[in-house]
Amino acid sequence: MTLETREVSWTRGGALVVDGVSLHPEPGSTVGLLGPNGSGKSSLLRLLQGAARPDSGEVLLDGVALPTLRRREIARAVAVVTQHADTEDDIVVRDVVRLGRTPHRPLWGGSSAGDDAAVDDALARVGLRDKADRSWHTLSGGERQRAQIARALAQDPRELLLDEPTNHLDIRHQLEILSLVAALPLTSVIALHDLNLAATFCDSLLVLQAGRVVAAGAPGEVLTPELIADVYGVRARVWPGDDGRSTIVFEGHLEL
After folding, report:
1. C-alpha–C-alpha distance, residues 125 and 105, integer Å
2. H helices within 50-170, ranges in order?
3. Cα separation, 107 vs 134, whole angstroms
4. What's the pLDDT band for 110 if we cut at 50, 70, 90?
């Protein structure tokens, strides 16, 4: 079992932002959420993490309705990485990552040897062990995102939710972050804007438009010129690869 939604709908600020969406990720797979701005990607991620409750439908974790679970129970299974994180506090990287151990610690207890080992392992997995004692404010944008992923990994989750984690990063850091996420032995759901990155790193895609699912499946099946024209209003050529993935070349926007 895994984290999933069944026909969820959610109205926010008087607008229907998620409309009857079902998502059933394969355990251990990387799922890309696609769609233009305002299509419902971030809203769906909020429902998946339990930060909001749907008006109808269900969000389930291992077959159990998410609202019936305690926050600590959810946090032990589901980790979240936002677009970017910042703080005015003078905090070192190790302490940022250590925040991920909060769901596993007793309410009034301090860090244990197990917590320290989990933090060290998370830092090593994202390649930041040599920067563990550096100030957060000295890190580059890509390093901060890696530190946030390390914090999420320190939670020891089974599910990882990422909201446009490559936003504002250069190409090299985009590739580093998504390569790292795709290689993790977790079920990951990632909201993305870049269709070529989605085609390269995701096992399956869910495309949203005005809160509704308009396509779902393998990248090579979903990312067609017709779909891109209908959803994004852009002319594109799609070159299928031998591995079932595609390369997309954009030719211009369609006239309204």
Report:
1. 22
2. 71-77, 93-98, 113-125, 141-154
3. 28
4. low
- Token pair belonging to 243: 């591995």
Q: Which residues, 6 or more positions from 219, have their beta carbon under 8 angstroms from its beta carbon?
A: 32, 198, 199, 202, 204, 205, 244, 245, 246
What is the tally of helices (H) and strands (E) in the chain? 9, 12
- pLDDT > 90 fraction of the chain, expressed in percent and rounded: 72
Reading the block at residue 73, the tokens are: 């129970």
Neighbours of 1 (CB within 10 A): 10
From 117, 112, 184, select the one nearest 146 (Cα to Cα): 184
3-state helix, strand, coil in the chain (%, to 5): 40, 30, 35
Q: What is the residue-averaged pLDDT of the chain?
A: 90
Check whether 87 has a pLDDT greater than 80: no
The secondary structure of 151-214 as a DSSP string is HHHHT--SEEEEESTTTT--HHHHHHHHHHHHHSSSEEEEE-S-HHHHHHH-SEEEEEETTEEE
φ, ψ (nearest 5 deg) of residue 32:
-100, 130
Cβ distance 17 to 40 under 8 Å?
yes
